[in-house]
Amino acid sequence: MVSLFEGGALTRDPQLALLAGYEALLRRCAQMLAAARSDDWPALLEHESAYVDAVEHLGRVEAGLTLDATEQERKAELLERILEHDFEVRERLLARRDELGRLIAGVERGHAARRAYRRQLPPVLPDDGAEFIPGTP
Fold first, then answer.
1. Judging by beta carbons within 10 Å of its beta carbon (0-12, 13-18, 19+), is residue 104 exposed, middle or buried?
2. Quick one: angle between helices 14-37 and 69-120, nearest 10?
3. 3-state helix, strand, coil in the chain (%, to 5)
4. CA angle in degrees (0–180, nearest 5) for 13-25-70
5. Which of 14, 28, 38, 83 reaches 20 to 30 Å from 107, CA-CA?
6. Mind listing the pLDDT tens digit for each residue in 33-68?
7. How far is the CA of 13 from the CAs of 37, 40, 43, 71, 74, in angstroms?
8. Region for residue 65 given its phi and psi (left: phi exceeds 0; alpha: psi -120 to 50; beta: otherwise)
9. Pairing of β 9-11 and β 3-5
């Protein structure tokens, strides 16, 4: 069996191919983190889509494979780093969500204020040039 993972790792050993897949997943996760750190949300979404595809692919590749102790340790190291990156990405996404929520709330308050002031404005003068006199209908 020959496997090819992102990054060009070509191998006949499925265990090595699996580890190469986790390394590629870590690189993808690092790209996601870099995008989140630079507030490049469109790039983050693009990387996240590819990340999900890679995770699904790894799940299929890993089914039925047995890793020796060294391979298991390497996989655990990679997963730990992936989870660290994922945690920071999630924290940044939550902060962004909160920021957007505050912005939306500000816009909604502005709309409410404009509606309130609009109700308090005097009626529009008729086109016939009549003068508005306060207290008259």
1. exposed
2. 30
3. 70, 5, 25
4. 45
5. 38
6. 999 999 999 999 999 999 999 999 899 889 889 999
7. 36, 37, 33, 12, 15
8. beta
9. antiparallel
Q: Which two tokens stand for residue 94?
A: 């939550």
Helix (H) or strand (E) holding 3: strand 3-5
Q: At what angle do helices 41-62 and 14-37 cross, to 10 degrees?
A: 160
Amino acid at 41: W
* Cβ neighbours for 50, distance < 8 A, ≥ 6 positions apart: 28
The Cα–Cα gap between 45 and 24 comes to 17
Euclidean distance between CA atoms 110 and 127, whole angstroms: 31
Q: Give 3's pLDDT tier (boundaries 50, 70, 90).
A: very low
Helix (H) or strand (E) holding 121: none
Task: Kindly list the distances between the CA atom of residue 44 and the CA atoms of 27, 38, 66, 80, 96, in Å, as whole numbers in the listed order.
Answer: 13, 10, 33, 20, 12
